[in-house]
Write a structure and sequence with these properties.
Layout (H helix, E strand, L loop, with lengths): L1 E6 L2 E6 L7 H4 L3 E2 L6 E4 L6 E9 L6 E8 L5 E5 L5 E6 L15 E9 L6 E11 L5 E2 L6 E7 L9 E4 L2 E2 L7 E7 L5 E3 L5 E4 L10 E9 L4 E12 L6 E2 L4 E6 L7 E4 L2 E2 L11 E5 L7 E4 L4 E4 L18 E7 L11 E7 L6 E2 L24 E2 L21
Parallel strand pairs: 4-10, 12-19, 21-28
Antiparallel strand pairs: 1-2, 3-5, 5-8, 6-9, 7-8, 9-10, 11-14, 13-17, 15-18, 16-17, 18-19, 20-23, 22-26, 24-27, 25-26, 27-28, 29-30
Length: 401
Amino acid sequence: MTTFKTWGGVLLVSVSFLIIADAQTLNNPQITPFTRPYNIHEDTIVETQIVEVVCTNPGDACLCNLKYTDPLGGPFTVWKKTSLSKFYVYYTGVAQGGKLSFKNNPTYFLTIECRNELGTNTSEVVLEIDIQQNQAPVITNIKYPRDSIVLDAMRPYVPGDNFYQVTATDAESDALTFSITTNPSVNYFTIDASEGYINIAKDLRSATVKNILITASVTDGVNIVNNFEIAVNLTSLNTRPSITNLPATVKFPETTPAGTTLITLTLQDPDIFDATLVPTCSVVPNGEEYKFTYESGTRKLKLTTLVNTQITLPLDYESYNQYKITCVFSDGFLDSQNDTLTLNVENVNEAPTFDETIYYCDLYESGPGVSTCDLDAVIIDPDGDTISTIGFLTSNNNNRF
């Protein structure tokens, strides 16, 4: 409004101003902007406080909450802590016990909303949270990434003896787990998963591979380092024993008597020979083992003399014409291999037999060709030949029949 007055001949002009303010704008909560991103580690535990949301609203309270995250569903929230105007951003934890993942979601953008107590006026601010990647363990062995070691295979190691330790550190002090693989794949070694000691798993006198490459790995549960190679050279390997005259093939007629020697085995072991060791033998077909025996003093493999039976000829071409007798000779650590005797049974033509030794027959007094009787005799030929002639032995009165 403008008014005009005169005073002492001087024109006076009076101007007044009316300022109308937007009450809604004045009552908007004021959120202090975040001036930098905030970092949290992949290993951050649940309910971890990250940063305060500073909000002011003269004459009214601030009520703040997390509106949404990008990507959606981020594991964060805004909670009030000590007073109406103090709110904090918290990491709440990944669902189902999971962890933050730099690989999957390296950055989250949080839109935070603050309003007055009535909820009529609101303000928003965006917070950037960057995920700090978990650092991989570091293998600290002096000769990493490749080392070598020599072991005497004839030394009587006890399973559990350790001969090497893989050492490592972790920037976040995460629990470390060690493991190994071998090339070629052998079962000679194990590793203590928590301490990194590489142990002997079995007596190395049973080892057959001279050079083994161990690859040691360590993980903190997130990252894995698996490029530490340890070359193991086994010296003085045990020599596998052998039966030097097997494999072999022999043939015997089915009329061969019990007690006959089939072969005399020649045993050889150049480094841990024990003359008292006895081979163990198995027979194919199954169930025929009882026909064979091994004499440890003479090392002879023989046909068994069958006790408490009338059988004096163990072999029968018509039942089985071939046997596979596999013998294994061990020095206590290694077994001989591929030591098989093949026994071929030769057929011998055998005479037919009657099913009874004596037959009885009642005849009536009569003329020739009148009185008869059935002997009910069964004649068997072991070879399956056709019976061509049946007659009587020469004796008194044989001409009467």
